């Protein structure tokens, strides 16, 4: 497996990975909420926006298929969830075929390392009640729940942060 910076040429592979991997949550969502999530994951704009403003990291297998991805958005890009002084991680995603091999951990660790190298002070992310493995992973890497945020897709979500100093 190779980890490398993602770019606009990876757009089809990023979307494909997202749709396949996040499909595991279809049964946990109402049909209406699944369609909302699916539309977001299938929208080029979602990934183009992230590729333009963030550090994208991908993991590829021997055939160059993208089997893992994440995005680190630098501070200065606030949202309704994230403070402008924080950097934050989005879309840590691993192919179900490669689950349990440490790819999600490695992607998250590399985001933390990159954030430290670029002088960030606080790193944040959000995750939901249906993402049990992700919550365990983030907590094992030192992230702590800052607060519960507005439900999304009918599910509970939490905002996690970690100091980098």
From TrEMBL:
Q: Which UniProt keywords apply?
A: Transferase
Xref: PROSITE patterns:
GNAT
On whether ATP-binding is a keyword of this UniProt record, the answer is no
Where the record annotates domain N-acetyltransferase, the positions are: 1-165
The yes or no answer to whether the keyword Hydrolase is present is: no
**An example molecular function term from Gene Ontology annotations:** N-acetyltransferase activity
Q: Which CDD domains match?
A: NAT_SF
Under Pfam families, the record lists: Acetyltransf_1
- Spell out the InterPro entries in the cross-references: Acyl_CoA_acyltransferase, GNAT_dom, NAT_camello-type
Gene3D superfamilies membership: 3.40.630.30
**What is the recorded name of this protein?**
GNAT family N-acetyltransferase
